[in-house]
Write a structure and sequence with these properties.
The chain is 18% helix and 0% strand. The protein is mostly helical. The protein has a domain of 105 residues.
């Protein structure tokens, strides 16, 4: 009886083994070839190394540009003017403050930083200070310029902005 059971076990193992081997050897259908023009967004053969097109940042100096539309409510506004001579922002120098945090209340003057920028939300969230909080010092982390490059991928998103500025 024991002998018969052992033989049956061996047969079963051999049978399952052959099924597994067959499944592993099953031919996979050949993948359709993808042209390298269809890979990525550059749409050039991968062997080509074309010089990237040159795009330009705004050249209008501050005061001669026009504010750009916001992408969504609460988004940091884009910098519409040239930043030539104004960057980099360092620990000692931040020229943005001369115009954007000079306490002006005239509507014709450069737009002033909102109160959020004068608040240290980590340590004193209820205090509006006279000067910009450290977390807002590096303006260009959030406020960026736009080149005239066309969008690589279209987008139909329309922001619902309650108080467009
Ligand atoms: C000489 C003054 C001046 C300086 C310096 C300056 N700006 Fe401006 N900025 C302006 C004026 C004026 C505007 C409004 C648009 C215009 O008239 O060109 C503006 C607009 C902006 C806006 C758009 C605001 C909105 O509500 O859409 C941002 C963002 C901005 N500046 C960021 C910066 C940053 C960052 C720096 C420093 C790297 C800087 N600016 C330096 C004068 C200045
Ligand atoms: C951490 C991100 C961040 C940093 C850093 C930052 N900002 Fe902003 N800024 C914002 C956001 C977000 C808004 C929009 C706030 C809103 O809609 O209430 C804004 C709004 C503004 C506006 C528009 C105010 C208005 O009434 O239209 C100005 C001007 C501005 N920032 C200037 C600056 C300057 C100058 C600096 C550097 C000293 C700076 N920001 C640093 C995120 C930032």
């Amino acid at each position: 009886m024991r002998m018969v059971r052992t033989v049956l076990m061996v047969l079963l193992v051999v049978f399952i083994g052959s099924l597994v081997t067959r499944a592993m050897q099953a031919p996979t259908p050949p993948a359709a070839a993808v042209s390298d023009l269809e890979i990525g967004l550059r749409r050039t053969p991968l062997t080509d190394d074309p010089a990237p097109p040159v795009y330009r940042y705004p050249e209008a100096p501050p005061g001669e540009s026009t504010k750009l539309p916001r992408f969504w409510e609460g988004a940091p506004p884009l910098v519409p003017h040239s930043l030539q001579g104004l960057i980099p922002i360092t620990r000692e120098d931040n020229l943005c403050l001369f115009c954007h945090a000079n306490g002006s209340t005239e509507p014709t003057d450069p737009p002033q930083v909102p109160k959020s920028h004068l608040t240290d939300y980590r340590r004193a969230p209820d205090v509006i200070r006279d000067s910009v909080a450290g977390a807002r010092w590096n303006c260009t982390v959030c406020h960026v310029m736009q080149t005239n490059a066309p969008a690589l991928v279209g987008n139909t998103y329309k922001a619902a902005i309650r108080n467009p500025q």
